[in-house]
Design a protein that fits this description.
With 190 residues, this protein is mainly α. 72% of the residues lie in helices and 0% in strands. The chain has helices spanning 4-26, 33-40, 44-50, 54-77, 83-98, 103-110, 113-132, 142-157, 168-181. The protein is elongated and about 60 Å long.
């Protein structure tokens, strides 16, 4: 027999999973608390016992996704493989992960200021480690590489990538190629 706490936990999980499914498919703006409750077969009273409002639920899901992303990033970073191989794995994970999420939801959660510093710290650490191994040019500032990365991320945040690509995965693949491998077929050192 289920205890009240187990039942509440189950219903909370139902709400979260249903909201993720709906948000990933339609974005945050189009989905109401009523729709989440109806689809998850949970009452609005139970919803409001678990979340103050839809925004709190969105923040919870966003934070969970960020934790997953950092965890995967750390997992890949710990592998004993080259920097380009790590970049490939991270990029492929991102493509697979975001391929099931409608771009409106990505745009709704990407302006997450509190995670920027943690992302920057991890990114700079990886670039510096790759420079020590000779996998990234030492004559490039890791901070400049970060700035360029941030500017490229603006393409995602402002949605301008949609003017060229209908598929987020293809956008990510081509962006990675131009960013990490450049424009030339072969690299000549200056």
């Amino acid at each position: 027999m289920e205890t009240m706490k187990e039942c509440t936990s189950k219903k909370r999980t139902q709400l979260i999973e249903t909201a993720k499914e709906l948000f990933f498919k339609h974005g945050v703006q189009r989905i109401t608390v009523e729709e989440i409750c109806k689809k998850s077969n949970v009452s609005k009273v139970t919803f409001y016992k678990n979340f103050t409002n839809k925004d709190e639920l969105v923040r919870y899901i966003r934070d969970e996704l960020i934790r997953q992303g950092f965890s995967k990033f750390d997992e890949i970073n710990e592998l004993d493989i080259s920097f380009p191989e790590k970049v490939e794995l991270i990029t492929q994970w991102r493509i697979d992960f975001f391929s099931n999420i409608k771009s409106e939801f990505i745009e709704d959660i990407l302006s997450v200021e509190e995670t920027i510093e943690e992302m920057k710290k991890r990114y700079l650490k990886n670039i510096e480690a790759a420079q020590i191994k000779g996998e990234v040019r030492n004559d490039l500032s890791p901070e400049l590489i970060w700035l360029v990365t941030e500017k490229l991320n603006e393409l995602v945040r402002d949605g301008s990538w949609k003017e060229v690509f209908s598929d987020y995965s293809e956008f990510q693949k081509q962006l990675r190629k131009i960013y990490f491998y450049g424009l030339l077929d072969h690299v000549q050192k200056p």
